[in-house]
Records
---
Amino acid sequence: GAGVSQSPSNKVTEKGKDVELRCDPISGHTALYWYRQSLGQGLEFLIYFQGNSAPDKSGLPSDRFSAERTGGSVSTLTIQRTQQEDSAVYLCASSFPLAGDYTGELFFGEGSRLTVL
Amino acid sequence: GENVEQHPSTLSVQEGDSAVIKCTYSDSASNYFPWYKQELGKGPQLIIDIRSNVGEKKDQRIAVTLNKTAKHFSLHITETQPEDSAVYFCAASIYPGQLTFGSGTQLTVLP
């Protein structure tokens, strides 16, 4: 499809397990973002990739969270030793490069709902 | 860093009435203010945005106003329809793409 694709859409895991969430951005979008949305809350910025530059990791809540982006396209968000407070919807977004066609608009996927028991 | 506050958290209006959602931001360097609409089970979608060199922007039934001096901006929806029911998020940005979001407003349009 033409939109941002995220998988899995739902993930239930036990406390202490590791999880991986995948994001496939829109083709041609060099910027990729991860946000976390807890129940009834706004979107919390986690990490931002722009082209080949070093990612902005300033929003990651702890060292249990990490993300990588291979080949400038697909990204994986990894949460190690999950805790119950990690339960949330993890949203990925992508956008055009910061020049040319860039309008500021983020295109979001439908999210991965993580439940930690 | 930037802090964005959004009010109200819930808003119910009768179909055909207007709805107003307000946001304040803390960093005077912010220069981009988008509004996103999130329907149930979907990711947020941009509905309108405004940049700091503009005071007001309108797109059909939706308008956004910006007061840089007071550091607040508002979303106005006129002639509301049931399909306007959703969660609306304001956001502010200093750097392109790195948005700080408000906590959201659940808008319900009653038929």
---
Amino acid sequence: EVQLLESGGGLVQPGGSLRLSCAASGFTFSSYGMSWVRQAPGRGLEWVSTISTTGSTFYADSVKGRLTISRDNSKNTLFLQMSSLRAEDTAVYYCAQTAPFYFDSWGLGTLVTVSS
Amino acid sequence: EIVMTQSPATLSVSPGERATLSCRASQSVSSNLAWYQQKPGQAPRLLMYGVSTRATGIPARFSGSGSGTEFTLTISSLQSEDFAAYYCQQYNNWPRTFGQGTKVEIK
């Protein structure tokens, strides 16, 4: 059974940084692309970033240059390094197995709140 | 960027009735369209990909149709567990984009 467990969310001030992690199990992590999708409170889903099996990365324009996706296949873990955070980055961040173009399995999410 | 537009925003349906949800793309996405279901306080769940292929464990009362720019998700006979929000998503182009969602509520 695929399991994805996000961590690292919390309260951060505008301009601050945060690093999210997603621990994966139940599948061959290195064989799948992985993505981050976020959902602001009371709003819809917004794709944030995807990393392929070969390490190619893709970003939404709204986060390009501020958020960085990476993966450690030896630890079956996906990361999202977030910097220069803004109030509009406040959301639940989900990691999702990307199989290979749509989002097959999702974690439970971690809440990031950007506020002073 | 491809804009995905869903209609209606809210759909009020009685249990046992049929629900028809629409999704329109601002340009062709071929058959590269997925649907997700999200219940309050839960993560989204993949329902359908490639327009009409049901994901693992999704019951046959869910069906998808369409191609190009116009797509439909049909729930043939609504069960209590189907009342939720539904999102379409295109994966033909970067950036990946979602519709704003349709909430299916009990009438």
